Amino acid sequence: MNREIPLQIPLDDVTLEARLAPGGGDARTLWLIGHPHPLYGGSMDNDVVLAVQQAVLTHGDAALRWNSRGVGRSTGRHGHGLTEAEDVLGLLDLFARGAGTPLDLGAGLNLSLPVHAVGLAGYSFGAWVALRALALGARPPSVMLVSPPLDFMAPDGLDPPSVPCLITLGDRDELCSQATLHRWLSGRREDPGLMVRIIRGADHFYSGRQPALVETVRDFLVYPL
Questions:
Q1: Are 131 and 89 in contact (CB under 8 A)?
Q2: 8 Å CB contact between 66 and 79
Q3: Strand pairing category for 102-104 and 62-66
C-alpha cells in the first residue's frame, strides 16, 4: 500500500482523524472515502473501505479515508448522518481549494496535492452520508456508492447522483435489495453516466468478494464517462 500521511483535519466545529494516501506523482483525482455506520463498529479501518482505497491507488489516484465524528481520534459526537454530511461538505471544499496548491491543514502542516478534482465515495453508512451531502449542495465531479443501505436507512428526499456514478451491490446484500435499488433508480436507469454493478455471491460486507469489488471500482475509474 502507498505511504499514508496521518492527519487531524480541523473543520468548523470538529477535528477529524484521517489518513491521506497521495497516490502516484500524476494523480488526477483525490477520492474521499466514507466508512460504514459507527454505531455498529464502522471506521476508516474497515476492510471494504481499504478495498476501495486499494482500487483508487492502483489506478494512480489519491485517497483520503477518515473517521467520522466521535470515532477514533475524531472529536465530536455521532450525528446520525446529518452532521457527518456537513463534514463531507467541509472536506470537499477544503481539498478542492487545495488541489494543485499548498493546503494549510493547521498545526503548521501544509500539503501540495497534484490533483485536479476531488471525488466522493462511501460504503454503506458512508454512501448514505455522501447522498445527504449531495442533497446539501455538494458537487463532486463523480461519485462511488458502495452498497448504499437503502433498506436500513431510508433514502427519503435523497435522489440518485446526477454526476457520473458507480453503485455496487452484492446479490446477497442484507441491507439493500436489488428491487429497492431499482425502484430508487427508476428515473435514471438509462443514464449513460450511471454504472450499476451487482456482484454475485457478495453480501453487504463483501465477505470473500472484496477482490471483485476492487476490480469493479477500477473498471469505473477507467470508464470513459
A1: no
A2: no
A3: unpaired
**Which pTM value belongs to this model?**
0.92
Cα gap 177→91, rounded to integer Å: 30
Secondary structure (3-state) at 138: coil
Domains in the chain, CATH or no CATH each: 5-222 (3.40.50.1820)
CB 151 within 8 A of CB 176: yes
- Cα angle for residues 78, 5, 122 (degrees, 5° grid): 45
At a CB cut-off of 8 Å and minimum separation 6, what does 179 contact? none
CA–CA gap between residue 11 and residue 74 (Å, rounded):
11
Query: Is the separation of the CB atoms in 172 and 209 below 8 Å?
Result: no
Q: Which three cell numbers stand for residue 162?
A: 446526477
Residue type, 34: G
Query: How many CB atoms sit inside 10 A of residue 47's CB?
Result: 12
Residue 191, pLDDT score = 82
DSSP conformation class of 24: S
How many angstroms from the chain centroid is the CA of residue 219?
Answer: 16
Contacts of 21 by beta carbon, 8 Å cutoff, 6+ apart: 1, 2, 3, 4, 5, 53, 57, 62, 63, 64
The whole-number mean pLDDT for each consecutive block of 10 residues of the chain, a chain of 225 residues, reads 84 95 76 97 98 96 96 96 96 78 52 76 98 96 97 94 96 97 85 93 97 97 75
3-class secondary-structure state, position 45: coil
